[in-house]
Amino acid sequence: MPVEGLVYVIDDDPAMRDSLDFLLDAAGLKARLFDSAVSFLEALPQLGPGCIVSDVRMPNLDGLELLKRLRETNKSLPIIIMTGHGDIPLAVEAMKLGAIDFIEKPFEDDRLIGTITAALSGAAQRQKGDAVAADIASRIASLSPRERQVLDGLVAGLSNKLIARDYDISPRTIEVYRANVMTKMQASSISELVRFAIRGGLLKD
Amino acid sequence: MPSHIPPATTFDDTLLQHGLEDSGIGAWDLNLATRELALSPTTRRLFDLTPDEGIDYTRFLSLIEPEDRERTEHAIERAIADGTHFDIQYRILTPHRASHWVRTRSAVVKQNGGTHLCGVVIDIEEQKQLEAALRIREGHLRSILETIPDAMIVIDSRGIMQFFSQAAVRQFGYTEREAIGQNVSMLMPNPDSARHDSYLARYRATGERHIIGIGRIVSGKRKDGTIFPMHLSIGEMQTEGEPYFTGFVRDLTEYQQTQARMQELQSELVHVSRLTAMGEMASALAHELNQPLAAISNYMKGSRRLLASDTEDNRQKIESALDRAAEQAIRAGQIIRRLRDFVSRGESEKRVEKASKLIEEAGALGLTGAREQGVSLHFNLDPDHDLVLVDRVQIQQVLVNLFRNALDAMTESAQRTMIVTSSRAANDMIEIAVSDTGHGIAKEHQARMFQTFFTTKTTGMGVGLSISRTIIEAHGGRMWTEDNPAGGATFRFTLPAAPSEGLTDAG
Known about the structure:
The complex is a heterodimer. Chain A has eleven helices and five strands.
């Protein structure tokens, strides 16, 4: 499926840039590489339409800061955040700042490329009304009140122990609820759960 | 005093008598037939008698200190019975002053049909007092020698034991009786035991000192045949022109056991603190490891896609991608190897290492994430003074620790600069300094910086700096801190420089 626009890859690690370039090329996407958010912002006024794939941990200007700066510009490029490890609060923060998705390294190529092509074709903005989003919303609706509380806690980046304290139930019980939430949401990991929650509209400021 | 009087032709008896009297030697004469006693003026003075006081043998005996009386009387009676002479020391009781010692030498003399016991009386009070003082001193010395835990053994120039202290008895298991008079070589295992006589001979011949005045750790052998480590120091003395050697022996069995245990605990602690440091770095390292893994995954997935389209010109792209993936796999491997080396409980082995390389490798571990934090790193390393003699893993641990501390200290700083320098220091040492622009060290914390379990961090264990200092000191170096004039702290430590490569053989 041919799409318009470039993929702007921002990562301070040369191997990450090069390998992403290769992967995107193999998927028929054209990439332009930046070794820092600063150099990307400098080039931004001249850039055409496209989608940003940026690392979150970078010297000088990190991924979250980049999101804030982008909000201030009138160019609204969709941005996908890559993270080295499943840092839920960081991911939630990124989503709140307008990232359309966040993915953990190393990532599934299908998911990355799917997200990028969707973004490039402008589908990301409309996704909320999509069947996928509706499906996720129905999964959220199937949760019991207690399970919903646990989901809220997990998405807020709280540990089992903290959630248990908030609702005054034992951490062991929370574990059971948590397992139920994962099953009902059809999430295989906490980060996927957070992603679903965001797609399902649970997390908008 | 000879028992025969010299002939009158040679000596004037009267003159001699005066000489003797004036030099404090009294004369006495006991007529054995009458038991009459004639005393010279000096003798009267020594016995505390007035010049005209009458005296006989019985009265004389009563003048003797009761304790000495029987012994003295017995000696005199035996001399009379055997017709020989006696030499006896006894105390005279005096009414006016304390009893005092005299010595009497007399012989049986026959003259003009009569038999006499005559001779001289000398005051030996002073000599006796000296003797007593000596005895007290010797008693003190002995009790001191018996109290000190070190065994003391004195041998003569042939190696025969002359003195064997109580501690020596305890250490070696021989009694004083069994040891004294025996060759000291019985206290040593072979080969020293067989060679000790030749050691002594060599010393007598050459005067070359191998152990005297130096002190050394050698092996000792107990009576039961067991061998034990001991520290031996030897002193030499000359008594009456004869050389004697005094050996002080300290049993090191317990000391060595304690040392070994201490070392074990220390290396355990060093290891634990390395693990702690690892835990603190885990998140940064996970990120570091994720990079090559993600890159590999990208190359592989990309290749997979190209293979699916199956066109000939993709072949070269795929080959190149596979090469780059392999490079990234190696990069991941290196990260893991660094970790493994750091965490492994390596034998403490000092080697000649390049300080620059240690700093670089430690930086790869300890400075993970520094660039992302916006820390600018500067290395001013002296290439001419680079070789140090160290245990690589331990020094890297120190460096990692200092690096992590510097990064932690700068998290709130506007300016984040870390400078690592190496330079030559006095006494053949190389100084390494790690300087940051962080919050510095509060005055009240400075004194306690290096104490174990002291920490200003919310999650710290407080072992890092204390372990670091221990490690540096075990290398013969020093570690200290300074405030930077522009803010922040500098940690400095020294390490022994290794001779440069060309000198290795000569060194």
